[in-house]
Amino acid sequence: MRIAFIIVSFLLINGYSYAQKKHKRIYVDENDQEISRSELLNKWRDKNLLLSRWDYIKNNTRYVTLKKDLYQTAHFNYQHIKSRLEFLTKNKVDNNTIILLEYYYKDDLCSSKRDNTWTKIEISDRKRFLSPILRTLKGQDITFIVLFEEDIILNNNPKLKKEYFYTDKDNYFRNKLFTNPTLCGSFALIKPNGETLIRNGEYRADWMAEHLKKENWSIFFGSTKE
User: Which end of the chain has fewer beta carbons closer than 10 Å to its terminal beta carbon, N or C?
Assistant: First the structure.
């Protein structure tokens, strides 16, 4: 009888906690107009619209917003980017390597399990998934680094020679490259000539590397020489 009471109490408490975490939702399109959930999902899934998404909580309401920034292009000083990465990682970055960055934002509501703390177990699980991808990228002379916005607690091991998960100290890359927070993070490819392609939203590093193919890259930058 006592066990049954404990189980019922546990379920009630957890049910209440779950209810407390639920928020009213407001859906806003890329033109800053409030729309229905189905309208937003249809727009978000339409590949031709090239929309990204960002969710945030304010006054106990979850705002689900669309943005016209699935892709962004820019030109940056490659040496400045390279130097900053060497400062963060304490490792040398090869001079003519292509740099591929994955970026995680603070307060990202990508999933119910996502918070502003990455435990050693979570990092280990993520690296296990990335391991074959990392090998492929190295074979293509691509330097791959995963960055986390400052104030995310990252239980990494900076002294580890093979470490590639780092905190974006002073939010250098957040303020320079990843200026638009996006659900489930962003990616950036930086070529030695400074051409930079950013893709916002859930993706994979190896898929991002596919953009380096001449026929894909020329869509964003035309036919340019390195």
Answer: N
CA–CA distance, 26 with 110 (Å, rounded to integer): 17
Residue 113, in any domain of the structure? yes
Predicted confidence (pLDDT) per residue in 22-52, tens digit: 789 999 999 999 999 999 999 999 999 999 9
Query: What's the per-residue H, E or C state across 88-141?
Result: HHCCCCCCCCEEEEEEECCCCCCCCCCCCEECHHHHHHHHHHHHHHHHHHHHCC
Reduced to 3 states (helix: H, G, I; strand: E, B; else coil), residue 206 is helix
Q: Is the model's pTM score more than 0.90?
A: no
Residues 188 and 91 in one domain: yes
Residues 6+ apart with CB under 8 A from 39: 27, 29
48: which DSSP letter? G
Q: Report the half-sphere exposure of 76 (CA within 13 A, side-chain side).
A: 23
Rg (C-alpha) for the chain, rounded Å, is: 20
Domain for residue 41, yes or no?
yes
Do 105 and 171 belong together in one domain?
Answer: yes
φ and ψ of 64, to 5 deg: -110, 110
Is residue 85 a contact partner of residue 129, using CB atoms and an 8 Å limit? Answer: no
Residue 180, helix vs strand vs coil: coil
How many domains, the chain?
2
